[in-house]
Records
---
Amino acid sequence: MKTINVKRTASKGVVMGKAYVVKRPDLSADRSMISDSMVEKEVARYEAAIEAAKADLSVLAETNAIFGAHLELVQDPTLYDGVIDKIKDEKKNAELSLEETVDMFAAIFADMDDEYMRERGSDMKDVGKRLMCKLKGVEDSALSGITEKVIVVAQDLAPSDTAVMNLEYVLGFITQEGGVTSHVSIMARNLNLPALVGVEGILEDVAMGDEIAMDAKNGTIIVNPDEAAKAEYAQKMEAFQKREKELAEISLLPAETPDGKTVELFANVGNIEDIKNALPHHIDGIGLFRTEFLYMENDHFPTEEEQFAVYKEAAELLEGKEVIIRTLDIGGDKELSYFDFGKEENPFLGYRAIRVCLDKEDVFKTQLRALLRAGAYGNVRIMYPMIISVEELDRANELLAICKEELRAEGKEFNEDIVVGMMIETPASVVLADDFASRVGFFSIGTNDLTQYTLAVDRGNKKISHMYNSFHPAVLRNIKRTIDAGHAAGIKVGMCGEFASDPKALPVLLGFGLDEFSMSAGAVSEVKAELRSTSYAEAQELADKVAKCAYVKEIDALLEA
Ligand code: PEP
Ligand code: MG
């Protein structure tokens, strides 16, 4: 028996079963060089491989959007030119040229700071594998051999793998590679299967047919569990399933405390797929649509039409419920492949978010026009990030007014009365909260940044991560001050930072009077369950005491009690 602890849960759940270890065909390229006379033949072989891959992907794209992206990638001129140049100029055979080109692009993605972008490198690799199979005339059939209930253990799993897998028999996934935003994670969450990703060394620790007990919620894997461990996991499984059933029932109930205080439970999303996955959790709306992914996934600033299509779909999917769409929040740790931000000493204090938008007015106006137009199709609200001054807010609103005028002149349909709000994520915006509150339709507190800027603690620096604490009295008082200022002006105050889904924070935020809690959709039912067993009157008392604490340890003690 061997126990492995894993940090990253991709999709929660508890299961036991036999391991099915995926063995892939050898797709490494032959390293021999070609002569001049062979160049034409190799080019033709590569082009035939593209055609064959395109034919497969066109069929697959009908049922899964991910393959639509692969279909585009397989025809991408940069990839094509990269491979052909190597065949012609470096006299490498088609397989080797493909391998080197794909590795180069995958490495560029892998180097990016943003996890989401890093995972796009796996799309590139997946397309590369498909082309390689075509060139080598082999089938990747490892996954089609599953004929009994198993836990699939693999180096990595690609979306194309689900197409050949008999999902009826799949109990869960464990992969050596991948992050929580990788396709295997998204896939597992969509299929409601437990999954653990990024499990280093798992292929050495597990052999085909080994018994596995996995708890994807707490991140433990036991290989060949003994009787006691099996009994323990059987109990865990039962408890988990019972809890899931309870949560599914709770998700249908109102977000209300036993003494009648209601709040809104919203979801944070990054694309349409996320919205579709969030809806079954019975959310009250979208509290943060991070539009930067739309920009980061592209190789150009997305056009007004491209953006309009996405925002319109979002509005329609929500059927009249609020969709708060944040304008571009780029810079800091989020880069664009097609725009050079230049090197900065302090990127988080630098050229980012609204600062970029007010500098690149055309980019900003394109987005604002798309948002205004989408506003005609549902309850779209606009939210500006990282505001530090009333001047910035005024300038953003001036540009919005210009966009409205343009659309009016063009006779285009749009929402004249679109509600505009702002994120509170800088200490400056807290200090000026009264001034802002009279000028916007709502506030949403971004605790991820508000914590880092209030405490001057970099949110991504592991060395000082113990100091990054949203329960610090300065952060909590900034939150309270924001809520009070918002309410004094009669506007709604929400929160879309991670703190909104922290069960320990719930009574304090509730007691402070937070109106809307926005979080990853998977956390909504747990928070709702917690809320439904929390007394608002007691939460208010607790929040009053917490707001007066000067020491972190006093706050901790109050919350423990
Ligand atoms: C925040 O800062 O809390 C927030 C929600 O924005 P992001 O995490 O995208 O910076
Ligand atoms: Mg932020």
---
Amino acid sequence: MNATPRRVEHLQTDKGSVPVYTTAVIEQPWSSYSATDHAVWAQLFRRQRELLVGRAEDEFLRTQDAMGMGEERIPKFDDLNRMLRARTGWELVGVEGLLPELTFFEHLAHRRFPVTWWIRRPEQLDYLSEPDLFHDLFGHVPLLMNPVFADYMQAYGQGGVRAHGFGPEALAQLTRLYWYTVEFGLIRTAAGLRIYGAGILSSKGESIYCLESAAPNRLGFELERIMRTRYRIDTYQKTYFVIDSYEALMEATRPDFAPIYARLAGQPTIPAGEVLDSDRVFHRGTGEGWSKDGDV
Ligand code: HBI
Ligand code: FE
């Protein structure tokens, strides 16, 4: 049976009505996954693994293999947790879906990564508007085995819990940082730019577009600039930011953010497609196919 997630309510936000799920932690109902669920996992896994050779960072693919993730079946959180706990002290917890920011931050701050327990339906193969099990498990989990990135994710959560006291602008700035690194980040390697952002790794079209299309900008990571840069939630990104290493990302975000929030307060946000004179430009996009609006 294709169990469907239990939505508890729809929240009216400036982005319209978004589904807000219960924040409860749910045991992965592994035995309830249907043959269709496993087949959707297999198809997505096979397709992404073919695409990501030479596009994802090699360590990402090696780690996925080392964790025993394969196309045969949906991985069991318990199996992955044994490896994660031993290596970086992280563990996966099952959730219904998107969590309120503070709840999400609190999980990360305690090295718990929330993973949606259900997987998309076959008709949603190419796009769905919220993170499902494939996005979270395939995209996010392997990098939690990297000690430096694991530290970054916990520091991000701790920063998020602290930011909650700084109000909505700080929260928006932190969400942009997550978006342009954890979800849509690129990294420099000796072989060229590679993908590490889960939002790209779990997306067929964007895995190709982010590295090979002339349309998007590819700019060097710069913390405060990223915290001001708006983004798209419904199409490919107009700009990708490139880190030199996970260590560099961790170092850049180690300082306390309070003075940064103070400096950024009241500064205008930057449109997603803009390139600044101060930017380190790997590629200046042509902007082909962009619509002017759509940034959040
Ligand atoms: N909830 N389950 C889940 N997964 C996410 O990735 C997530 C979330 N809530 C909020 C959120 N991400 C982002 O807004 C973070 O920047 C906070
Ligand atoms: Fe995600």
